[in-house]
Design goal:
- This protein is mainly alpha-helical and about 140 residues long.
- It is about 80% helix and about 0% strand.
- Helix 1 (about 1-30) runs antiparallel to helix 2 and helix 1 (about 1-30) crosses helix 3 (about 70-75).
- Bound molecules: fe (ii) ion.
- Fe (ii) ion binds near residues 26 and 42.
């Protein structure tokens, strides 16, 4: 259970960092494709943000405390913070890399939850993996 708790906290902090990055890109993207990219990053951050509260409460339901501070997020997150204002294409490349990382992370945490027979939790984690697969698809297709 300790291992599952740790993996859940890492995935949660990473998901929050991913959400913030997508929102940052929504605000700061520039270039000829601005309307489409502003909209794409907007859809992505809204979808991910919409999952955050449920994710936090799923963690609480396992008995663990949910990280909720920027310091804890920065220590736990496997999605690196972006402090530069990137060109549009670099934003797409980086968010695709991060979304792929989130898919992998949810795949691993899903297995840990399944091993403990926590099917409600694993169902949620599977849905997050699927959501990121869709985000990855849209980012990848935009880059072609
Ligand atoms: Fe907006």
């Amino acid at each position: 259970m300790d291992e599952l708790h740790r993996a859940l906290k890492i995935a949660f902090a990473s998901e929050f960092a991913f959400y913030l990055k997508a929102h940052n890109f929504h605000w700061n993207v520039e270039g000829p494709a601005f309307p489409q990219l502003h909209e794409l990053f907007g859809k992505i951050y809204e979808e991910v943000y919409g999952s955050i509260d449920t994710f936090a409460e799923e963690i609480r339901a396992t008995g663990a405390y949910t990280p909720g501070s920027l310091t804890k997020f920065s220590v736990l997150s496997l999605v690196d913070d972006e402090v530069e204002t990137l060109p549009a294409e670099s934003m797409l490349v980086e968010l695709l890399e991060d979304s792929t990382k989130m898919e992998e992370m949810f795949k691993i945490v899903f297995r840990a939850a399944e091993e403990l027979g926590m099917h409600g939790l694993s169902d949620f984690l599977a849905s997050r993996q699927d959501a990121h697969a869709k985000h990855s698809w849209m980012l990848r297709s935009t880059l072609k």
